[in-house]
């Protein structure tokens, strides 16, 4: 029988004096970190203060703000069956242990963004990035992920676009569906390109990452067939095999087998497309969930070691708190002012629309209990934000001159250490040619000049931190380990993202042909998986063969697209809060929506209409078209064909930026209309929420079961034994 709301939501007990003391100390640690970062002017600042500010803020936010939203606002119901339990078919719907699902969700959302974005944003200084990464995740990013996960779970795991269509209406919903799917293909193509660039000609990374597939298959069958429920056992086996694969990767790279795993970019494209298709159609328990869970050990392990390394080595933040580029907006890494472009550049580390697709894709079809949305939705995003903080630390502890020599394009720093040293001097920083050459030798690279994209800079920072703990002789090892670590980080977002793209396309086609609404319908499953992998695979293939074409053409709109998608997610969440009787709590997603829409639409306006050719797409098009008319070749073009390609790319990017911004405006306006109508005439509103079904699953809400949850588990086990004896 359905019980009263209070007992079902099981709001935790009041704090004891002991917990008050503990959380006061945590708050003081965080406050001390923020005070040092904010008030320091000119003196040396240890990176440990950034770690203290982040960890203290995360702990307070998870303990209080996330719990408040879960139990007071969303009113999670531990007795309500989730789609994983009600619709369990062993393919897409499958109740998954919370520890495995936490690993899957974190691995799926943590792609290139939290590693690369903060590194690029470091050109503005360490303070703006730190503030946005931490405040953004606490009040926007983690809230979005948890609320989307909750509402999707209540709607049989519906995709974000389909929820928009059902709850906002066909007009705004259609705009959301189209925008979300187009943005998803762009995001997947960019993620795949980063993986290709990281693994090309790298036998160590290719071998180690390839080995995670058979290890994951073993773990999947172990949990499903050999030893069901033995998560601790399979975790130990998986971690041991993963460490062996990492070590063996270096052996392979130094052996006669190296040639077999030294793959050209075009070959990697074929393998990635094939892997994406297979991972999208196999049952989630077989490959996707265990592989992501396995990857999480390496991801979290590395980030924890980085944090410990910072605490032990106490490296100094060598980048300015706020650089002149933040004021002038003429940075060599990316052009544009601090507002809005530092928020767009950081993206995934604080707020990411891509996460909303995972939270309304694979995860709601696998979660055991509604009470777990706090740990998996909010907690995973805090984990990703910690990755972004460590990436920012890694970028800000290296010599600023080396940072700008690595991240400025070759057209700015040239191709020699002498030209790079002079270019950096003109930026206001100093690094000698000998120091630039020595930095490359220390990590066993021929050159570090113009290693743009953020990944090599992060690897240098990681090697700097770890080598201070383990010794300078291992600096090159840690550099190449970090490069491989980044590729693994991103690949796990690619396979889950492909599956989510398949769900989105099935939801769209299901509005036309009903069988597609069953996401596990095999003909539809295969067709939509092929379509999604074919789309991002095509852009990736062209991008690999044409440096200015394919996905490279769409790369400049990656950050804006991601943040526009976040606006869609927050608009849907706000609408659902209003329509479900939670109007007084609508500010929880409404304020982040207003901020994100302001930032992203401002950035979109500037990218379309700015008169600065480094910022505005159409102004850039005009400059290069004038160059073509005058018979001149302008960098980065090498010939007239490249000039024409840049003109085409600028036109496409400008048009896409404008169209996507208009679609998001339509979604937000339609959502506002629905909210106003509900407030005025609630009787006209309908909710597509699935009916209540009582849950038979007993599972904890967090990683560590409470005493009450342990007692509930023991009682359920006794009941099961009794039922078996009676049978």
Describe it for me?
This protein has 727 residues and is mostly helical. Helix content is 71%, strand content 0%. It is built from 30 helices and no strands. It has helices spanning 5-9, 17-39, 47-73, 83-86, 98-109, 113-121, 126-153, 160-167, 170-199, 203-226, 231-253, 265-281, 288-313, 324-328, 338-346, 353-359, 373-396, 400-407, 410-413, 417-427, 433-442, 455-470, 475-510, 522-545, 551-554, 558-579, 587-609, 617-630, 640-680, 707-726. Helix 16 crosses helix 26. It is globular, with a radius of gyration of 25 Å. The relative contact order is 0.14.
What's a concise summary of this model?
The chain has 727 residues and is an all-alpha fold. The chain has helices at 5-9, 17-39, 47-73, 83-86, 98-109, 113-121, 126-153, 160-167, 170-199, 203-226, 231-253, 265-281, 288-313, 324-328, 338-346, 353-359, 373-396, 400-407, 410-413, 417-427, 433-442, 455-470, 475-510, 522-545, 551-554, 558-579, 587-609, 617-630, 640-680, 707-726.
Which labels suit this protein?
727 residues, disordered N terminus, mainly alpha
Please give the share of residues in helix: over 70%
What is the tally of helical segments?
Answer: 30
Query: Rounded to an integer, what's the Rg over CA atoms?
Result: 25 Å
Low-confidence runs of at least 5 consecutive residues: 1-7
Q: How much of the polypeptide forms β-strand, as a percent range?
A: under 5%
User: How would a textbook summarize the main sheet?
Assistant: none
**CA distance, first residue to last residue:** 24 Å
Round the mean pLDDT to the nearest integer and report it: 88
Q: Please identify the structural class as seen in this structure.
A: mainly alpha
- Total strands: 0
Shape: globular
The SSE order reads: HHHHHHHHHHHHHHHHHHHHHHHHHHHHHH
